[in-house]
Design goal:
The protein is of the alpha+beta class. Helices cover about 30% and strands about 20% of the residues. It has helices at about 1-35, 45, 65-70, 175-185, 205-225, 245-255, and strands spanning about 55, 60, 75-80, 80-85, 100, 105, 120, 125-130, 145, 150, 160, 190-195, 230-235, 255-260. Strands 11-14-12-13 form a four-stranded mixed sheet. A two-stranded antiparallel ribbon has the order 1-2. The model has no long low-confidence stretch (mean pLDDT about 85).
Length: about 260
Amino acid sequence: MTMNRASEHSARSGLRLLALPVLGLFLTLASSGCSKSYPDCDGDKTCASHNEVCVDGRCRQCRDDSQCSKLDACMTCQANECVRKPNCCKGDYDCPNGRCNAGECKAECSLNSDCPDGKRCQSGRCVEAATGCTDDSQCGNGLKCKNGECTTACELSTVYFDFDEYAIRLDQEKQVKDNAACLKASSYGSVVVEGHTDERGADEYNLILGEKRAKSVSGQYNVLGVKNLGRILSFGEEKPTCTQENEGCWKKNRRAETKVN
């Protein structure tokens, strides 16, 4: 009797020892089988490699605005997707038809009185006021009428730039110096420098590039002693002088023009 009970106890102990690794293997397999893979998820970790978050068991772009604002301050979360806030801006380049004011695109003007001297309000933007001259007698002292606008008696040359550049080229330095000498010898209200680009590139990028080109020329005028330097303007690719799609045409559009009021 004692031997039978001892044998039975030994057999049960052996079964328990055998069951332990089997149970461990079962738990491991069960745990492995429960893990989810993209786009299914049970936590943000599953979605991290796609820069997404877990929402109701699925990887989505966002669960709130905080995920979107990391990408762009003008982005918001709607239906778990990052979309651009209407009329939001980070700078004037986000507002092709106006100005960025406190993070919102607004019209630059509504009346001519909203614009500085020498400009008028047109479609919400302050633009150069047309002089409407027909002969030199209608212009101020030292100015002449050319193409319906009052300008300096001496010639103001266009300054050209290399592709995607805003530094003044060595072969354009003479034009800048001659323009400065012309302006210093003339009578005028203020100088306006306009920056332009060719058609390649995004609209926002070209507006910024045009502004940098205008700043380069205006900054050199300042060094050369030109007075009454007014605002700089960027038209980006909006006002091409040539519309053919080739380098011969594009190089004519990469420019800065100097005008006076």
